[in-house]
Design a protein that fits this description.
By secondary structure, the protein is mainly alpha-helical. It has one domain. The protein is built from four helices and no strands. The longest helix has 33 residues. It is elongated and about 55 Å long.
């Protein structure tokens, strides 16, 4: 069961990296004044919500696995705290994305910062998860 959780969240991480790459591409086009690539924007919008949902589901699956196998959720407190913060960042990025309206929206930079923090924290979270296995 632990391996399924880890594999699932690795796939979720890769989807977040892909979303970050799409978002960075959109951001670079905006800063250089290039016309926006509509297909990239549509893909980022379409799969962003799904990716956020998958990330949150990954956290919840870990909580349920630990609770049902150990009887409490704080068996690995550092991994749990990192997952909790990661989930809050995902929720924040989702709600920030809903506030973005137009090319010069002030919500773009906080959304970008949250997305960058998500990817960085996911790397730490994966490291902590692998340490649990060994």
């Amino acid at each position: 069961m632990w391996y399924a959780h880890g594999l699932y969240n690795t796939v979720a991480f890769l989807l977040f990296v892909w979303q970050g790459w799409l978002g960075a591409k959109i951001r670079i086009e905006r800063f250089t004044g290039s016309p926006p690539t509509i297909t990239v924007i549509k893909r980022h919008r379409k799969f962003g919500s799904l990716t956020a949902l998958l990330g949150i589901a990954g956290f919840l699956s870990g909580v349920f696995i630990v609770y049902f196998s150990k009887g409490h959720i704080l068996d690995k407190p550092l991994h749990f705290i990192a997952g909790s913060v990661l989930t809050l960042l995902i929720i924040a990025a989702f709600f920030l994305s809903r506030k973005i309206k137009g090319r010069s929206s002030p919500w773009r930079t906080p959304h970008f910062a949250a997305g960058t923090a998500i990817i960085c924290l996911y790397i730490i979270q994966i490291y902590l998860g692998i340490r649990i296995l060994f």
